[in-house]
Amino acid sequence: MSQHINIVEVGPRDGLQNEKQVIDVATKVALIERLADAGLKTVEGGAFVSPKWVPQMAASDEVMAQIKRKAGVSYPVLTPNMKGYEGARAAETDTIAVFGAASESFSQKNINCSIEESLERFRPVVEAAKADGVRARGYVSCVLGCPYEGKVPLDNVVRVSKALYDMGCYEISLGDTIGVGTPKETQAMIRAVASEIPVDALAGHFHDTYGQALANIWAAIEEGVTTFDSSVSGLGGCPYAKGASGNVATEDVIYSLHQSGFDTSADLDALIETSVWISEQLGRLPDSKSAFSSQNVRLN
Ligand code: HMG
Ligand code: MG
């Protein structure tokens, strides 16, 4: 029997949060619905963060109100604090995500507080979610490098991941925010975290700045990880991690997994169509090999 891999599609959030051009609500709604129609079971819907910090996510409440939700599909949103949680609740979200970092400087730049302060801020959010029957996911950024500090000690990654897991996050997404990690480093990082947290509660979140993301996914699979975040068309980047490229493209991950005998819920052709469609909306070419190979892209 083939092994199942879970994909968390982060394109509508991580993919679009860094875009400078205005993307209207209708386009975001259409993107989320297309991704769910392509068979993805988890599609991030947006982020309830300060609109001053991330203007592109400001209309996440409207997006969440307008999407037609499919049975069996979850639409997580990011919530950095109780204010964000209240917005997410009002939007009737089924899953929220708190997001911390393994690097002090990144924590300060991204959410304006220290790692310890962030954990204290997340605790009531995760507790409220638990009480309301909402699932809480935990992100840890900079697990393989920080844009401000360079190398990040593995102990920090383990400590923050464990704190989020012990708090009640059902899954810890380990983020190579700036896409600098390599397979060997990924392997060592996963081993360290998995010594404290069950490996089936871990997810990999690889940005593709140096073209290592797919190789890192395979290194993580070898370590027993079965959930990966990815972004249609390789969209994305973090506004507080200058120079970092998008996430690994969902369609490239799906191609690699399906060709290797692994099973996902996604339909590759429908994903490629969505990749080409969103790229056209954004006025650029897809940042994925599969979209080009599919010959769906008009190069003139
Ligand atoms: P702060 O300025 O310290 O917040 O920002 P504050 O509590 O002092 O509030 C200041 C103002 O923001 C107030 O409004 C609040 O009401 C408002 P004012 O009185 O000035 O009009 N505010 C909010 N508004 C809407 N929603 C909220 C909210 N909270 C406060 N939730 C804060 C702290 C965390 C809010 C801010 O730093 C922030 O929003 N940061 C978000 C940064 C972000 O979204 N980064 C990208 C996502 S993380 C990522 O991409 C990495 C990831 O992909 C994994 C990886 O790749 O590594 C997940
Ligand atoms: Mg990210």
How many strands, what sense, and barrel or not for the largest sheet? 9 strands, parallel
Order of helices and strands, N to C? EHHEEHEHEHHEHEHEHEHHH
How many domain regions? 1
Summed up, the helix count is 12
What does this structure look like?
The chain is of the alpha/beta class. The protein is built from twelve helices and nine strands. The protein has helices at 11-15, 25-37, 60-66, 82-90, 104-111, 115-132, 154-167, 183-194, 213-222, 250-259, 268-282, 289-293; strands at 6-9, 42-43, 46-47, 77-78, 95-101, 135-141, 171-176, 202-206, 227-230. The protein has a nine-stranded parallel β-sheet. α2 packs across α3, α6 packs parallel to α7 (154-167) and α8 packs across α9 (213-222). The radius of gyration is 17 Å and the shape is globular. The chain starts with 5 loop residues before the first strand and ends in a 7-residue tail after the last helix. The mean pLDDT is 95. The protein binds 3-hydroxy-3-methylglutaryl-coenzyme A and magnesium ion. Magnesium ion (MG) binds at residues 14, 175, 177, 205, 207, 238.
